[in-house]
Amino acid sequence: MPDIIVIGASAGGVEAVSKLVRHLPADLSASIFVTLHIPEHSMSALPRILTQKGQMPALTPVNGERIQPGRIYVAPPDRHMLIKRGYIRLVRGPRENGRRPSIDPMFRTAARAYGKRVIGVVLSGALDDGTAGLIAIKMQGGTTIVQDPDEALYDGMPRSAIAHADVDHVMTIEQIAELLVQLSEQPLEKGGNEPLSDEMEQETDIAELDLRALHSVDKPGIPSRFSCPECHGVLWEIDDHIVRFRCRVGHAYSPETLLAGQNNSVDVALWAGLRALEENAALMGRMAKRMRDQGNTRSAARFDEQADGALGRAETLRNLILEREPLSIVEPETDRPLVTIEE
């Protein structure tokens, strides 16, 4: 029977996961794994919250912890939670979709280790982490479930999964809880499943910090014209059921998260340019004062002119920064914004 339940959520996820576990019985025979996007240098209160809200104990696992039924395992900050056969690995691997912990590594490793025994659930969240992982679960014969976007506080992740992953069920939280109980009590159906693609296998190895995969000359996909927003290395474009990008050291992006990363890089570059212009103007002003103090009015005038020019360019750049529109990512086949990333 399906007894490995992996749940991914981001913005609005604390409410969604709390509501889900509240409807699960204490004697559920499955093991539940939760990855929620949280700041890397924070303390996660989610295990305590889920233990209080539900009937199953929730905990942050340690590296190598054995998997037990009737437990909820929550990914810790700054570590990917990877599902191995019988135990859990916690690794400080490369960020995926700008996150660590990220949902896709957990989903992919669960699919590879447990195949049909896996149930993948995507709940509220922005952008699209979890979509590629759901595809891996589906390929391995597992069951895929997505929260109804109309119910989710943030519908980016659910809508992306529905658009790309050929999900089995789209439901409200209460319906998902009922289905999880039913599925965990049913025997597995016979039938084949297609193996993970070479690209997805290699991506899973990279998440697990497999040195052969990290140092392999044959990177998954083909070199693109884009650079990694985090390390600035070349990104390889992978088109395997869904387009995504990965750099030499392992940072991974969907098109949406790559756009968000590039937008942030542009923002950083613009502010750095503004700072450089204002510093240049300040230095020219000091040079002009020194020249005047020495009685060199001609040089002072030249430095004043250069300072005014730098201040003028700085003002133009400042106005450009303030007038920049937030990056709006459009939902597939609609004109409705999927998510708005504020400046």
| Largest sheet composition | 7 strands, parallel
Number of helices: 10
Based on Cα principal axes, name the global outline. Answer: elongated
* Gyration radius, in Å: 25 Å
How many distinct domains?
3
Q: What are the secondary-structure elements, in order, as H or E?
A: EHEHEEEEHEHEHEHHHEEEEHHEE
Label the structural class: alpha/beta
Strands, count: 15
Fraction in helix: 40-55%
Please mark out the parts with pLDDT under 50 across 5 or more consecutive residues, or reply none. 328-343
Oligomeric state as shown: single chain
In the CATH scheme, what's the topology name of the largest domain?
Rossmann fold
Explain what the structure shows.
It contains 10 helices and 15 strands. The chain is α/β, with parallel strands linked by helices and 343 residues long. Helix 1 crosses helix 6 (173-184). The relative contact order is 0.11.
Secondary-structure map with pairings?
Elements: E1 4-9, H1 13-22, E2 31-36, H2 46-53, E3 58-59, E4 72-74, E5 80-83, E6 88-91, H3 103-114, E7 118-122, H4 131-139, E8 143-147, H5 156-164, E9 169-171, H6 173-184, H7 198-207, H8 211-214, E10 222-227, E11 234-240, E12 242-247, E13 252-253, H9 255-293, H10 297-323, E14 327-330, E15 337-341
Parallel strand pairs: 1-2, 1-7, 2-4, 3-4, 7-8, 8-9
Antiparallel strand pairs: 5-6, 10-11, 11-12, 12-13, 14-15
Helix pairs in contact: 1-2, 1-6, 3-4, 3-7, 4-5, 9-10
